[in-house]
Design a protein that fits this description.
mainly alpha; 19 helices; 0% strand
């Protein structure tokens, strides 16, 4: 039965690719179709989940490219400034009172957690320390210590892993495995999140948890070939995730950003017409959702660079000054913690990529084709802020830059 299920999804993936060529006004070319099919090796269309090699967690991770002391807050400072620091992701501060309320209602939160002894203050202190590690950019330590603290520690641990995967891992393959590991682990907890979905005391925790799951899937999907996106049902998982975040916390800045970026990303990959007909992606949703996010938290760097990306994906060359305006807004933000710092660094890198596209390519799609081909040939993670910005020479001769 599993073989037939894979066959049906494979047929749907390939059928969509061919069907997109017949949609009037759709810009998906024959060359792009063959590139996407070439990007999708058979093994990628046999497994819904990316196989994860656990050895990637045993080596020493790269250090973040800033001094940890820059974002090192005492527990008292964290409590005082928490709402400002978490304005985007809206994670709840792990006070003893909140922990006791949620653990008494949902004891699964600390099942198989020897670190929890019934002392809520001590457990709160341990969790605050994990968040402190995460805030200052000690991602591997945050992961290792967070995984010892049940689901309350799991989510800052997995967000730390997600940020490391996106912004600091060298290889695209390693990035994908780390993100898949986050999704795999988070998926196991979805039944608990369903139970807590309508609990107002758990709302921020549920939204943060769902955001982590959907964000990991989205960062895999945004650079995957269209057949893989369809076969692995990424779009439905991501859109459902964005809806679930906003169902828990309707005024969630990154929830609205995510909802907008999902539709923009769909149209980036398959065009406006196919995106609207196959997935209901609409430019109006993109604009409205981004405006909701800007009204809630205009200074988040990721919001500004995602909007800039959406302008690039959906606009014309004459719209690029607007994209640069929002990249500039992202890079002008003074970071207050590790996620903001990495988002600012990536916004600067992404803006330089878009400038390369303007200078050397007739269209965004032609640039994207070569960018994806470069990643396929070299296994470079192009969102890694530790590496130099992509160059035209690299795009034209990817075989010279293969990672060993």
């Amino acid at each position: 039965m599993q073989i037939f299920s894979h066959m049906r999804r494979l047929g749907a993936a390939l059928g969509l690719c061919w069907a997109m060529l017949a949609i009037p006004g759709h810009a998906y070319s024959n060359d792009e179709l063959y590139d996407d099919l070439d990007d999708a090796p058979l093994e990628a269309l046999q497994h819904e989940d990316i196989p994860v090699d656990q050895r990637i967690f045993h080596s020493r991770w790269h250090r973040a490219p800033f001094a940890p002391q820059q974002f090192d807050y005492t527990p008292q400072q964290m409590a005082r400034h928490w709402d400002e620091l978490m304005v985007g992701i809206r994670a709840p501060f792990p006070t003893p009172e909140l922990l006791q309320t949620l653990i008494e209602r949902y004891p699964e939160l600390v099942s198989d957690t020897p670190a929890f002894t019934g002392d809520y203050q001590a457990f709160s202190n341990a969790l605050i320390h994990v968040w402190r590690l995460f805030l200052r950019g000690d991602f591997q330590q945050a992961r290792e210590q967070g995984l010892q603290l049940g689901l309350f520690g799991f989510y800052p641990a997995m967000f730390a892993q997600t940020l490391y995967a996106i912004y600091l891992s060298d290889r695209q393959s390693e990035k994908y495995m780390m993100l898949q590991d986050v999704a795999n682990r988070a998926r196991d907890h979805l039944p608990l999140l369903e139970r807590a979905q309508d609990d107002p005391d758990a709302a921020e925790f549920v939204a943060f948890a769902r955001l982590g799951y959907a964000y990991a899937i989205a960062r895999i999907a945004e650079e995957s070939p269209v057949p893989v996106i369809v076969f692995r049902r990424y779009i439905g998982k991501i859109k459902d995730g964005a809806d679930d975040v906003l169902a828990a916390v309707p005024e969630h800045p990154l929830g609205h950003t995510f909802l907008a970026a999902v539709d923009a990303g769909i149209m980036r990959r398959v065009g406006r017409a196919a995106g609207r007909l196959t997935y209901g992606a609409r430019t109006a949703v993109v604009e409205q959702s981004f405006q909701r996010a800007f009204a809630l938290a205009p200074q988040i760097p990721i919001l500004n660079y995602e909007y800039a990306n959406a302008v690039v994906y959906l606009g014309r060359r004459q719209d690029l000054p607007k994209a640069h305006e929002y990249f500039n807004r992202a890079t002008a933000v003074t970071p207050r913690w590790s996620m903001d710092a990495l988002d600012v660094l990536y916004a600067r890198q992404r803006q330089q990529e878009i400038q390369l596209m303007e200078d050397a390519y007739p269209s965004f799609r032609s640039f994207e084709r070569q960018r994806r081909r470069f990643t396929r040939v070299t296994d470079h993670n192009l969102t890694n802020v530790l590496t130099p910005v992509l160059t035209l020479e690299q795009l034209q001769h990817p075989e010279r830059y293969r990672l060993d």
